[in-house]
């Protein structure tokens, strides 16, 4: 007789991530591949990180600081918050898991706007709770529909803002009004993985923590800071929320190199601006080129763009891979003719448009 898993796990499909560089190289016999499917930072990370890692090599035999003291102090200063309002995770995945493990149990409901980050559904099901899906409206989280979906069983509301995979940003006033009218016994999670890519003035959500003790902000070092391989993110919330989440957080869950890299990254404002400027310039380039091709797209507040190829996006994805570029089909998001492409270097972006023109205009679409 086979060993049985927990009943709740039988409802879960394993999370499917973007294809890796090595797997594509092996499968397609390629020696050079550019990955633009995982919303990673193609510019890389700050040179400050390289120096910090090299300087830390002599301490590799010691356990990491469980409290992430240096990073905690730096972020507290950056956002003018209490250091005890921070919790650290092995990337956003772990932080999202902490939220579910802390606040969800059998019979509870969590509200998820779809399509959005798929891990919200996984962690809800892991806790034997029920995901309540609310469709986007015009590619954007529909706050009124989310509010209408609240029941006496609702425990957590997940809001990805800006939203992945669409790149849309919520209106500031509507978001504030929504937070204000949701019951204080419901946890509102604002997943702000892409917050640093927003242009212009936008609501500083860190200032809301003292007013709303049911609000959790989730942020990451994987995107604008280019530290995806280190796996480090953080949550900001009322100290009582943080104390509860720390009950499920494993001891020493953030490795020492990740802590050093994050601290170094925060100290390099110039590199951050280079990444942000490249993102802005690249998105403008995509808008211009897609307009010339007559293709619809969603204006993005993230480091990726979602657009309609008008063709089978799985076929489009494979045609790109054959040419050494990994992109993301929109099929899994419910957009069968759309693709999501991460912002790359300027050379990457130019090549993407060249391939797109070639595939759409010069290649017979057989599928």
From TrEMBL:
Pathway membership, UniProt: Amino-acid biosynthesis; L-histidine biosynthesis; L-histidine from 5-phospho-alpha-D-ribose 1-diphosphate: step 7/9
GO MF terms, alphabetically ordered: histidinol-phosphate transaminase activity; pyridoxal phosphate binding
GO-annotated biological processes: L-histidine biosynthetic process
Documented EC number(s): 2.6.1.9
One family name in Pfam for this protein: Aminotran_1_2
SUPFAM superfamilies recorded: PLP-dependent transferases
Top-level enzyme category: transferase
Domain Aminotransferase class I/classII large: 32-353
Cofactor(s) the record lists: pyridoxal 5'-phosphate
Domain of life: Bacteria
Reactions accelerated catalytically: L-histidinol phosphate + 2-oxoglutarate = 3-(imidazol-4-yl)-2-oxopropyl phosphate + L-glutamate
Keywords on record: Amino-acid biosynthesis, Aminotransferase, Histidine biosynthesis, Pyridoxal phosphate, Transferase
Residues recorded with modification N6-(pyridoxal phosphate)lysine: 223
Keyword Amino-acid biosynthesis (UniProt): yes
Listed HAMAP family: HisC_aminotrans_2
Family of this protein: Belongs to the class-II pyridoxal-phosphate-dependent aminotransferase family. Histidinol-phosphate aminotransferase subfamily.
PANTHER family to which the protein is assigned, alphabetical: HISTIDINOL-PHOSPHATE AMINOTRANSFERASE (PTHR43643:SF3), HISTIDINOL-PHOSPHATE AMINOTRANSFERASE 2 (PTHR43643)
Self-association state and partner proteins as the record states: Homodimer.
Name recorded for this polypeptide: Histidinol-phosphate aminotransferase
Organism: [Clostridium] fimetarium
